[in-house]
Every structure is written in C-alpha cells, then in structure tokens.
C-alpha cells in the first residue's frame, strides 16, 4: 500500500499537508521532533514517528514509497540551523530515501534557490542551503519534484496558481495552505517527476499551473 513520509509534519505547511492527505484516505507517516505537536490529529491512517534531523532519522523511511520534505529551520534561527536543517537535513533525507528505494521525493525549496547570488545579504545563506539541497536531490538518482514557492502568507488558500514569476515583487507570494495543496497534488503524480516549479498565487488551477 502507498504510504507517504512527511518530514517536518509539525510545521505549518507540513501539518496542513498531513491533514489533507489523511482526508484523502492516504497512509501518512509524520516525522516530528515531538509527538505532542500533532496530538490534535487522530486517524488510523496516521503513524507519528519522532526523530531529529540533526541526528539519524533513517528509521522513518521504513515502508514509505513517497517522501515530502517540508522541514525548515525557521526565520528566527541562525545560519547554523539553516545549514543543519535546510541543507544537511535535506541531503540526508535524500540519501535515506535512495536507500529505501522510494518512488518519489517532493521538496519544498524557495524562489531564488536557482541563483543565490542574486539574493539579499540576509537571504543568501538560506538560498545557498536550498540550492545545494536541491542539487543534491537532483543528482541523487531519485524521482524528484521541487517546488520553489514565493513569499509565504498565512491567509486562507486562494486556490489559484501560476509558475511564471510575477513582474512585481508584491505578487511573488503564495499562501501556505496553497503550498500544502500543491504538495498533495505533486505526491504520487508521475507526470511531475524530475521537474522544478516556481510557485505563486495566480489564476490557474493546479492541474493547469503544473502541467
């Protein structure tokens, strides 16, 4: 039976993705540092596993055929955690996924990860980490789908998308819930294997935006 591992399942996007997959009656393994952060979700489709991305978390991949990497160090942490979580944690996840022979790895990256040199001084360490993690995944031999969302917003999902970069920076945004919907749509979608998409709110349904 198909089973999806969500790495970073207690984060905002990860938790919404977990809930949406369960609502679709899909089997989910949620990897978190603290099980209590998902104590409000109860389902026989959900298996919660504790693990630390700075340590060995290869045990979480057992029985999973798809992986969604939704973890992040967060904006309030320093460069050290950016390296350990967004770069090293993501690279280890790809390595574990390869050994577990998963069929697809879906990664949340970021706009600007394709060319970190163009980012602001404050953002460059984060963008370099995302760039290197993306490159590691691309070169891993895994089937991958990389989503590079714009600035994340906490509003309700708008349900409209585009992959073409808007002309104004103010429109280079997307809600976290829309990113979660894109992750759910991407996981198991073989038409999206080995593709990279920048993702913003727009006017198209996901099926057209990611065609």
TrEMBL record:
The domain of life is Bacteria
Among Pfam families, the record links this protein to: NAD_binding_10
Q: Which SUPFAM superfamilies match?
A: NAD(P)-binding Rossmann-fold domains
Instruction: List each copy of the NAD(P)-binding domain by range.
Output: 8-184
Protein's UniProt name? NAD-dependent epimerase/dehydratase
């Amino acid at each position: 039976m198909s089973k999806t591992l969500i790495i970073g399942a207690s984060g905002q996007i990860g938790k919404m993705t977990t809930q949406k997959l369960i609502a679709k009656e899909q089997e989910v393994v949620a990897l978190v540092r603290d099980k209590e952060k998902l104590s409000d979700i109860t389902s026989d489709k959900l298996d919660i596993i504790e693990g630390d991305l700075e340590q060995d978390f290869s045990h979480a991949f057992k029985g999973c055929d798809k992986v969604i990497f939704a973890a992040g160090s967060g904006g309030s942490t320093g460069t050290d955690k950016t390296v350990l979580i967004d770069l090293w944690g993501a690279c280890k996840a790809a390595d574990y996924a390869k050994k577990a022979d998963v069929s697809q790895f879906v990664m949340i990256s970021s706009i600007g990860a394709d060319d970190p040199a163009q980012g602001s001084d404050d953002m460059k360490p984060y963008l370099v980490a995302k760039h290197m993690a993306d490159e590691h995944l691309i070169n891993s031999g895994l089937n991958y789908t990389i989503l590079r969302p714009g600035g994340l917003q906490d509003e309700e999902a708008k349900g409209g998308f585009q992959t073409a970069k808007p002309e104004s920076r103010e429109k280079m945004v997307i809600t976290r819930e829309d990113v979660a919907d894109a992750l759910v749509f991407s996981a198991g979608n073989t038409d999206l294997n080995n593709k990279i998409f920048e993702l913003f709110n727009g006017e198209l349904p996901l099926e057209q935006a990611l065609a």
